Amino acid sequence: MHAHKLLTSAVVASFAACVLASPAPEPAITEAPSLAKRATTCTFSGSTGASKASVSQQSCSTIVLSDVAVPSGTTLDLSKLKDDTTVIFQGQTTWGYKEWSGPLLRISGNGITIKGDTGASLDGQGARWWDGEGSNGGKTKPKFFYAHDLTSSTITDLYIYNTPVQAVSINGCDGLTITDMTINNEAGDSAGGHNTDGFDIGSSNNVVITGANVYNQDDCVAVNSGTSITFSGGVCSGGHGLSIGSVGGRSDNTVDTVTFKDSKVKDSTNGIRIKARKDETGSITGVTYSGITLQNITKYGVLIEQNYDGGDLKGDPTSGIPITDLTVKDISGTSAVSSSGYNYAIVCGSGACSDWTWSNVKVSGGKTYGSCQNVPSVASC
Ligand SMILES: *[C@@H]1O[C@H](CO)[C@@H](O)[C@H](O)[C@H]1NC(C)=O
């Protein structure tokens, strides 16, 4: 077999260890026999690959998904992996068409290593569902990837194309590092992609996302709840920017210590956005935006609101979700906002925005928003 040649060094090392431990070295097993030992590499492909991988997830230490074609209406389900399993995507992973809610892919476990091999892609072929309505109507569209309940795990070099609707949902994770992921829904700009959020993060701790490229038609990142979450070295294009929230009205409404840094937001509706829902409770504390470059922003360069109501800036703000200990610094957005847009819009409830740090924030090109309220004195609006 040639399959192991494509594997990365870590896998080769574990494969080699397996080989060394065996009296008679054997090539990688391509499909898990029922008696397979745990320390083995299993390769699955084609239209039966997804179901066979699901069945074998307890018996393979490395699962290689090679040109898997997942049947319509089913999930490529690796949610019962044993600790320390490696999952490698090779070639093109595709899914059949069905109107359903998904997800198309689900991976959970502890100590899981997930990688995309060179040239591999996960292709949602979302155009089959796109109708300009996203999750608000029209066809029922499957969510793409549930990265749920991953602890002490990594996802590296995954290339995702054209998700039907939301791309990556991170929930219930603790200790998840995502490196160099691309979510490329650029085709949806002209073909009716909508609500194609890049990363939706909830109820998770210690999540680090570095070097992501997101081309989409909704939030690049939306942190709805969680603690110690960092997004850095990313590029967001075509969407709604780097968002906290909307916070409020869910089971978990606490956002604590979230950092967006050294990233670029271009060709997007908003640059930076913090959305606290009106008439709800929760808290948003310790959020930092630092080293963010904005370019070609159509509506709001910086939008911070406590009157989000499904739409931005709706009516009187409320104070049930305070925004405290916020840092906004080194934001370069000179001439970045369209002349019909606003550089800053900050609408806080009475006493609900405090302990802010604001330095070297240069956003221009747009108008002054006339209805800023309760803005901390350090900030511009
Ligand atoms: C600005 O961004 C919009 C999308 O919001 C895009 O349609 C347009 O082509 C971009 N303009 C330039 C000059 O890149």
UniProtKB/TrEMBL annotation:
Pfam families: Glyco_hydro_28
N-terminal signal peptide: 1-21
GO (cellular component) term, any one: extracellular region
Subcellular location, record wording: Secreted
Known EC number: 3.2.1.15
Catalyzed reactions per annotation: (1,4-alpha-D-galacturonosyl)n+m + H2O = (1,4-alpha-D-galacturonosyl)n + (1,4-alpha-D-galacturonosyl)m
Keywords: Cell wall biogenesis/degradation, Disulfide bond, Glycosidase, Hydrolase, Repeat, Secreted, Signal
SMART domains: PbH1 (SM00710)
Enzyme class at the top of the EC tree: hydrolase
A GO term, aspect molecular function: polygalacturonase activity
Cited InterPro entries: Glyco_hydro_28, Glycosyl_hydrlase_28, PbH1, Pectin_lyas_fold, Pectin_lyase_fold/virulence
Family recorded in the similarity comment: Belongs to the glycosyl hydrolase 28 family.
Stated name of the protein: endo-polygalacturonase
Naturally occurring in which organism (per UniProt): Penicillium argentinense
